[in-house]
Structure formats: structure tokens, C-alpha cells
Amino acid sequence: MTATATSEVSKKPRNRAQSLARFAIPIFCLIPVSGLLVFFFLDKLGADPIEKITHVTGEWGLRFLFLSLCVSPARKFLGWQWLAPHRRTLGLASFGYALLHLATYLVFDLGFNFAFLGEDILERPYITVGFGTFLILLALAVTSNRRAIRKLKKRWGTLHRLVYLAGIGAVIHFLWLVKADLQEPLIYAAVLAALLATRIPWQTLRARYSTSK
Ligand code: HEM
């Protein structure tokens, strides 16, 4: 859900692999939720199904957010321009899983009580950050269509740069809620740092640094 508005306008795929991606990527996005549904109906989600659903939806929300952030480096370094329209699909998948994650928490943990959610947002820092991240994903999802691109013009690009903040927020949310083993959230933090580093215009910075010497 990032980058320039023009790159969001889908181009016709050029070969078989690329046309396959048009179907494979949306199907891939639906696999985790389908798995959850199958395991739910087979009663195979373990001793605490609600906890399992919260974890799976949270993790996939984060993974799809990261996958959407992989699109720009793949275009820049591998020349995979055809991936551009799939960034929207991956971003929407991230929002979809974040919505399921929040809904699971609201319905099953808080008994659909918005007052409790308000209290949690004010009192539990990891929920505060998670909710802020969710609001960013919501803003990006509702403006990820052509009409919004046309209407917002240059502001669309500025708004969609908030995806980086969403990535940081999601990692902080994860780091904050983990009590003992920080390994997994730290791996996500390292991946995010690498993804953000690919956005830094190193050559321009180097050129500026060498001329200022
Ligand atoms: C209002 C919004 C949110 C609420 C109320 C919320 C709540 C929670 C809760 C209760 C947990 C489990 C805590 C525990 O195990 O003790 C959790 C875990 C997690 N959440 Fe969220 N969250 C929110 C938003 C988000 C967003 C937007 C993302 C990412 C896009 C996210 C990603 C995660 C991840 C990765 C985990 C850890 C999953 C694991 O244990 O493997 N959350 N969240």
C-alpha cells in the first residue's frame, strides 16, 4: 500500500508466471484464514482456540504487512515491476488479518464490550500501539482504490508512507506483549530494519557527503 500512486495502477501481466501470480497471490493470502476455519471446525485448535486465533491472525497481519513492504525492493533490485499491483492485495490482506485479530480480541476476550477496549487502549501500552497500528492499516485500506488515488493526488503518497510507521508499530506491539522469549519479535524487528534500509537513498547520501567534504 505504499509508493507512488501511478505504480498502483495495474499493468497487464506479460507472461505465464506473472498471470499465475494474479491468482496465486490472492489464494496464498486466504490460506491462513482457511486453515484456521478448517482446524476450528475439526476442533483441532488446541486447548485454547481463542489464543490460537489471536496469535495466528496477529502474526499473519504482520507477515502480510512485511510482504507488502517487500514489493518495492523486489521492483528496485530484481526489476519485478509486475509485482506493483500485488502490493495492494498484500496490504489489504494485512488489514484483513489485523481486523480479524482485533475482532477476536473484542468478541471473545472482552465480550464485545467497547468500554473495556477503550480502557485497554488507555491502560495497556501494547494495546495502545496495536490499536494505533490498526488505525493506520484502516486508513491505508480505505484509500487503496483508484478513486482515492485520484482524489488525494500528492497527499496519497504522503498518507501511504504511514505504512512504515505501521510496520514499526506492529513490531513494537509484538515486542511489548512478549514477556520472556524476545527472539521472534527481534527477528521481525531485524527484517523490518532491512526493509526500511532499502528505502534509504544511499547513493544520493554518498554523493552529497563526498561533495560536502
Ligand atoms: C486494537 C488492535 C489490537 C489488539 C487489541 C491486539 C491484541 C493482541 C493480543 C491480546 C495479543 C496476544 C497477547 C498475548 O499473547 O499475551 C496480540 C498478539 C499479537 N498481535 Fe495484536 N492486537 C492489535 C493489533 C495488532 C496489529 C495491527 C498487528 C499487526 C499488523 C498485531 C500483531 C500481533 C502479533 C504479531 C502478535 C503476537 C502473535 C504471537 O504470539 O505469535 N496486532 N495482539
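^ protoporphyrin IX containing FE complex. Residues 5-212 form one domain. The chain has eleven helices and no strands.
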